[in-house]
Amino acid sequence: MKNKKKIAFIAGFYLVSFIVALLLTSHVLNYERIHPSRNQGDTSLIKLYVKNSGMRINEMDAYVQEMNASYLRLSVTPVSANKTITLQMSEPVTNVRKISYALMDENNSQEIEAGECPEIQRVEGQRQTEIAFTADLQDGREYCLNLTVEDDGRNTYYYYTRVVYGNNLQAFDKLQFVSDFHTAIFEKTASSRIGEYLQYSSDAVSDDFRKVSISSDSETVTWGDLNPSVVGDVDMTIVNLDSQTGEIQLVYEIEARDDSGNDYNYMVKEFYEVSCTGSTVSLIGYSRTMEEKLDERSFSFNNNRMRLGIIDESKMDIQVYGKEEPEEEETQAGETGQETQAADTTEYNTYISFVADGGLWVYNTRDNILTQAFGFERRSQAGSRDSSYMNHGVKVLRTEENGDLYFAVYGYMYNGDNEGRFGIAVNRYNRVDGTYSEVLFIPYDKSFSMLNRGIQKMAFIDGNDMFYLCLEDTIYRFDIIMKEIEVVLEQAESEDCAISGDGRSIVISHRNEAGTVTEIEWRNLETGEIQNILPKGQRMELIGMLGENLVYGEANSADEERLDVLYIVDTGLNVLKEYKVDGGYISGTQIEGNLLEIFRCDNNGADLPVDYIVYNANNTQNISTYSVRDDVRKRETWLVTNEYGNTMPVVLFARGIESYRNTGIEFQTQGEEYTGYFVYANDNMMKYPTFREAYQEALSRDGKVLDNQGRLISRPSVRYEEKELSGQAITLAGEDEMAQQQAVIEWLFKYEKMSGEPVLNSNDMFENLQSNFPDFHMVDMTGIGLDDALTMISEGVPLIVKNSEGTWCVAEGYASGYISIADPKDGTVISYEQDSAVGGIASSGNVIYSYYK
How far are the Cα atoms of 379, 392, 396, 616 from residue 355, in angstroms, in the given order? Predict the structure, then answer.
């Protein structure tokens, strides 16, 4: 009896274990069916708008994370004479409970005013409130306006715009002109009137709706025979505004019917630049782009070409991958063993992926199936598309032989589980299941253009599931499984580093203490392979990457102004081209995209004609795009496949599924361990170890210098106003250098209203400045000309300089072509003509110190 009970217990245990295992396996295999993602739906977050002179402008999207407003320039809102702004809102799901605001300076570093908006009222059927500023706003000066919304579910969202105050901005006149012009381009009878504003050029492209400009003909600007109509609202955004000019962007959707009665929809973006003189508004710039909203009807085959429609070819990111079937080889009779049988079971196929209309598409060439691997919208999305859809990008990160791939969706998350977040969503597409799911989300708090620039520079996943990303002059490595982050390389865009065209490799030139290049290291991040190039002559110089090939130069002398030979080498360091100048030398080089410019001189130093080398990428996959003329739609993009002749492809749409784990990761591009400086220019962030290097770079690029925490220090190319900082006397010190240092530091104590007496513990002026001002950040600007350093004075910071006699002085102001110098040798403050002062400081080596707080 006991044995029977024991057997029954064991059998029951195994039965229960089997059922539990079966349930767990079923849960894992069917996870996607029971955990659908919230992706591919309508937007649900509250939007804010500005009501200005009866017009609704400057749509503001909700962010669920705080952004760094100093890098955002989403819109510019004019502030009326009574210093008020009227806010309206769109509330698709939840309602606004309250709105608070913070008015900051233009760099978002200093709060000017903060408060809470009055209770929301319904005016003419629209809920609205207003902000009434009490601060003294400067005419024509921009400010950052940060808004915080709490909805009735106690959720918090963030909104951003810039504001500008002024009585002569003429915002209404500029907006009205743009609105009238926009309306007129949909009226054929207005074609001649529109033509009066255009600057037609016969060299301009006038048969392509994908890119229209002020140089296009009026027929193209007024839509030719397309005869479209606007669907939904037109979003009008002021991008720049001052008393003279205004830059205004319109985003909207249109619908047009073809000869077969099919309706096609397109997203359109217009950009206007207008100027005002009195009551007359002039059009000084105009451009328009459009992209087709793709669905099943958009695709068809004709003569080995697949129609994609009116799309942006610059964003296509075409990838060809899979496993190609090997050519058949003759075998001896009877030799059919296991190897042949294994080959018969191998799945051979070629896949073509491309990005269009904000989605990722994968074409299965064998089965003639085209799948939208990712898209923010459902297969049959109802209603018009919101303009915030335009604020994201897609990039393929890794492809696999079975048709799967990894890809990134980056920028503003239009809808779904991440709606309102900003950053990079790394996803995996499963071809067999027809699904995609998120594996990692990396937050980012600056502009889309900065993020996009980094993604295009380097973004890929290697075979070990490591995601490499270049962002703000730094290459990061993310472990997408363990969610760990490592910095691979800083200053990745300096003159001593280059990134290959495919974004898989980096090249670094290493220097000794004297600044001489001792070797060039080529590091393949995808494979881990490292190769080194050693100098053969007296000097070696890294030029850069031409596509996937490295360009470097050699010289037989130490003269930094000349190179004797250029080498172009491939990934195996094989020399593809060796370039020399007969009877001369190479005086400079420049790489722009796939073009290498070579500047040359003869042996006497006279300039020779510039020479060029063009990089031609090998297209081994036989895939390209082709622009096809259409009578109504003008130019359309077709994908040329050559080898895969089909008819209408079967179009499928992948489903987004919820990840089985939390995919979020904490990430900040600026770590506390970094002690250098940043330069922000042209939507790019670069790192420099010293203030002097950063200042010089910002000066040449019309940028600004930030500290290691991203706080603005200086804008070298901008001088707000001529300024005299003090006018106070300086102590007479005579010839004694230490007495001069004492007098200069005493002057600084008085200027900064500090108590106590200076203490000199060193013979070195910079060390004494550091020890006496421990709460200030002293910076060495030696080598920068005094005229270029004057921006520090305009920002309220004096310059400590050595004059032509080697005396330590204070440059304390400049006005009307004169620079004021406080000289302790004579105990005087004298205004010198600017050229004289600049030359005097230069004669002592441009020794200049300053500081920031």
Answer: 17, 12, 9, 23
